[in-house]
Amino acid sequence: MNHEAFGLLANLFAFLDWHEFFFLLFAGVACVAAVMVVLSDNVVRMALHLVLSLGATSGLFFLAGAEFVGAMQLMIYVGGTLVLLVFGVMLTAQTQLVALRTPAGDRVIAGILAAALLAVLVQAAFSIESWQKSGQGVATAPTATPLGMALVGVRVDQVAEENLVRPKSGYLLPFEIVSVHLLVVLIGAAYLARAKRRRVPRSVDLVASADSTKPRSSVAASSTLVAGGPK
Amino acid sequence: MTFVLCGVVSVSHYLVVGAVLFTCGVVCMALKRNALGVLMGIELVLNGANVNFVAFGSEYLAGDSRSVLGLDGEVMALFVILLAAAEAAVALAITLNFYNNHATVDVDRADDLHG
User: Fold this and answer.
1) N or C: lower Cβ tally within 10 Å for chain B?
2) Residue B74: CA atoms inside 13 Å, Cβ hemisphere, count?
3) Is residue B85 within 8 angstroms of chain A, CB to CB?
């Protein structure tokens, strides 16, 4: 009895196509989590579902044979960008801002438009004959080394095809541009998000608040004293 | 059922996943009132584009090897990931600045330049 069940289970495991199984798993998690990002109003839940969606997408990258891109997706997106977003959520988490609701009418219109857009895109995805042919499932070589060499300008993957009229160029210039771009962006972000000094009230505010409230007027008087002091 | 169980996964299946992610991102960008929600929508859109790049670049998925982008697709996906990280950093800085000045992250309240 037990052996029969085990045999049945083994047959089932042999019958299953594991590539397809994991594709359906990761694709389902990615799509459902993306829909949940749209549907949930709470910004903390949205961040959680976004983590799920991006992590499942990295699984899809691994399944497509792009293991370096999948690892970068996990490290940069899930490990870096989303931590940044969660910090933003924490820094702006006031009770009335955590759940900002969208009007129901807008939701209905957006749902109709999204269904139309999705229908067009899915129709386009199945419109080309050669895209629907399933792959041979041949194991491919690791792509990390060719990727790194392509980023410094050498196309290792093109060497095998010597009969190419003009070999494809590497990515040294875009790599440099992106690196300088990242530096500029980080400096700019640090400049934008720096802690600022308290703003000195403008003269209009000083006149308006001179005799309205006691503490404001004392602050205004002291600031005018400081402003006019050295001269 | 034939759609689900057609044997080995093809490029079209990846394109469908990318389309779902893209659509969710567009709706998220248009619908959310929280500025951070809009940022998450942008991340979803870029991620959907990335799925398409990787699918077209994969030799494992392609039926005939002539229409494969090869390594170019993966390099493009890497660049998209890097630019998404840069975009998130700047956009988050702008959002925090807006929060410091207005004490809210509601994008409907960002109407200082409204005529």
Assistant:
1) C
2) 31
3) yes
